[in-house]
Amino acid sequence: MSQTEPLLATVLSLMPDAAVVVDAKGTVVAANAHAEELFGYEPGVLVGLSIEALVPERFRPAHREHRSAYASSPRTRPMGTGLELYARRQDGTEFPVDIMLAPVREGPLVIAAVRDITERKAAEAAQAELAAIVQSSNDGILSMTEEGVITSWNPGAEKMFGFRPEDVVGRHISLLFPDDPVLDEMLALARKGEAPLTRDTRWQTSAGRVVDVAISVSPLVASSSRGYSLLVRDITERTEAEARLRRQARWLEATAEIRLSLLAEATLEESLTVLCHWAAELGSAQATAVLLAEGGRARVAARSGEEVLPLGVLPRVPTLVAQAIASGVPEHGHMSIVPDLAAVALPIVSQGRKDDRAGALVVLRQEGSHLDEEDVSVLSGLASQASLALELDAVRADRDRLLISADRERIARDLHDLVIQRLFGAGLRLQGALSLIDSQPAASRVASTIDDLDTTIKEIREAIFALESAPGTSLRARVLETVADATEALGFGPVTSFHGLGDREVGLQTQLELAAVLREALSNVARHAHASQVEVTVTLEDDLSLVVVDNGTGIGKPRRLSGIANARARAELLGGSLQVSAVPAAKGGGTRFEWRVPLGPEHDG
Predict the structure, then answer these.
(1) Bridge-based pairing state of the strands 534-540 and 495-499
(2) What is the DSSP string of 147-185?
(3) pTM
(4) Pairing relation of β-strands 543-550 and 591-598?
(5) Chain-centre distance of CA 209, in angstroms?
(6) Distance of CA 227 to CAs 123, 218, 299, Å?
C-alpha cells in the first residue's frame, strides 16, 4: 500500500466532500479532514475503525451484506442513486447522506465520498409538503411566468373554474380572465416588490358562470426565471351574505320611509309613489306600479318608471290584478308583456274594504330574470305596506267624514233651533200685525213678506235635511243602515256587498232614491217572499245598480204593483230602469230585483 498511499492522500485532500478509504475487511485506512469534521472525530481517529462505526446500529447488518456483495463485484456508484442512506456521528446523532463508491484498481480498496444532504432533504420535505397543501387546497392556486403564461394549475382551481390543467397550462391568463383591472393592478404591485394584498374581483368559469373571488399575487423568483403565484378563493357565500345584509338594511330603510310617509299625513298617491320607488330598487325592476281594482276596472294609483310602464301593461291591467288577487300572498301572477319584459303582480288586499279596494303591485323585470324566494318575500312585504296605506287612507276618509258630519249636524241644529225659530216668530208677529194695517198696499206687502218667510223656512228645512245626510261616499252607510232596519222584519241579516264605490261620490238625490227603492224591495221580501236568504249588491261602474235577490216563493202574479211601480218611477225619474224576474228553480228559485240608473254629471256629486 506504500505505493498508493501518497496518491490516495493527494486525492483525499483534493476532494470537496468528506471521503474515507476502506479495505476489503471494512476497515478505514484513510480519511480526509472533511470526513473527520463531518463525523465529529479528532484527526487520525477514524483510521483503523470499522466502517460500520459510521453507520447507525439498525442498518449495520444490512450494510455488511451490501459491502460483501460490492467487494465481489466492485464498480463505481455515483451520488444521487435514490437510495435512502443514513450516517452516524461519533456523538450518536444521525443524518441523511449521499454516498459515491469508487474502487481503487491497485489493491482491494474502496473510496467512499460522503455528502450530508440534511438541508436538501429538508427542502425536499418542505417542497413535498407544500405540493400536498397545494394539491389538497380548496382554494385555487396557480403560477405563471413574468409574461403571464400559466405554468401550474391545482385541483382547487379546476374545481372552482372548470378548466382542467391541460386546458390552461401554457396559455396566457388573459385568455381565461380577460379585462380584469384588479388583476392587472395587483401584478403591477407585485412587480414593484410591494407586500401582497387581497382584492375582490369576479372571474368567469368555463361554463360562463361568474364567480366572486378574492385574489392575492406573490412573486416567484427562481434561478432562471421570474414569475408569480396566485391564490384565488371563492367568496360567493360571503358576497351573498353581504348582499343580504345590505338588502335587509335597505328594506328597513324602505319600511321606515314608507311608514313615515303614512304617519306624516301624506296623500295615498304620495305614499304609494314612495313605495313604488322602493319596489323598483329592491325588486331590480325596470318599472313598478300600484294598480287598484274598482268595480271590475283597474286604475294606476301610483307608479315608478313611467317611460317603461305604459308600453304594454295598462291594457292588460285587469288580468294582472285578477291573477294577483286570485293567487293570494305570497304567490304571484306572471305575464310576458313586451319583448324582453315580463310583469309580476303581487296581490294587495285592504282587509277593511276588501271588495272595492283590492289591487296589485306590478313589477316589470327583464324577461327570464329569476325571481327568487327572497325577492318574492321583499315584494310581498311592500304589497303589505300598500295594503296598510289603503287601510289608513280609508280610516282617514272615515274620520274626515265623521268630522264633516259632526259639523253638518251642528249647523243643522243651529239652523233649526235658532234661525228657523226666529224666522217663525217674525212671521207670527207680522201676521198678528197684519190686522192693524189699514192701508191695503201695505197690508199686501206684509202678507207677501210672510209668504217669503214661509218659503225661506221651507228651504232652510230642506237644507237641514241635506246637512243631516252624510255627504258623497256615504251611500255605503245609507245602504247598510237600510239593510239593518229591515233585518228585524226579515228575521235574518241580508248579505250585502259593494263593488266599485272607492272614492267616487254619488249625488244626494240618487242616494235617497236608491235607499227608498231598497227599503221597498226588502219590505216586499219580508211580507210576501217567505225567503230565508237575501243578497243585496250595490255596484258603481258607468252607472249605479242595486240588485236584490231572494230565495223565496218567487214573484208570481202580485196583486198590488204599487211598490214595483214606485221603484220603476224612481228609476225613470233618473233616466234608469227596473227589471224584476224570477230566479230559475235550478238556481234555487226566488226573485231577482235589479234597479239601475246612469251616473252622468247631473247625478254625480
Answers:
(1) parallel
(2) T-BEEEE-HHHHHHH---HHHHTTSBHHHHS-S-HHHHH
(3) 0.45
(4) antiparallel
(5) 20
(6) 20, 9, 66
- How confident is the model over 380-398, as pLDDT tens digits? 888 888 888 888 877 777 6
**Residue 330 has what pLDDT?**
39
Site of grid cell 240588485? 547
Rounded CA Rg of the chain? 52
| Whether 408 contacts 508, CB under 8 Å | no
Nearest-CA neighbor of 280 among 314, 304, 252, 249?
Answer: 304
Nearest CA among 260, 251, 321 for reference residue 279: 251
Give φ, ψ of 13 to 5 degrees.
-70, -30
CA distances from 215 to 187, 219, 220 (A): 11, 14, 16
| Between 483 and 455, the higher pLDDT residue | 483
Percent of the chain with pLDDT over 90: 15
CA atoms lying within 13 Å on the CB side of residue 25: 6
In the chain, the domains with their CATH numbers are 5-119 (3.30.450.20), 137-234 (3.30.450.20), 244-468 (3.30.450.40), 472-598 (3.30.565.10)
Please give the grid coordinates belonging to residue 397. Answer: 276618509
- Of 467, 433, 461, 464, the C-alpha closest to 447 is 433
Cell of 217: 399575487
The three cell numbers of residue 498 are: 259593494
User: What percent of the chain shows pLDDT beyond 70?
Assistant: 78
SS3 304: strand
The torsion defined by the Cα of 56, 60, 62 and 64, in degrees rounded to 10, comes to 140
| Cell 295615498 -> residue | 268
C-alpha cell at 513: 232614491
What 3-state DSSP class applies to 493? coil
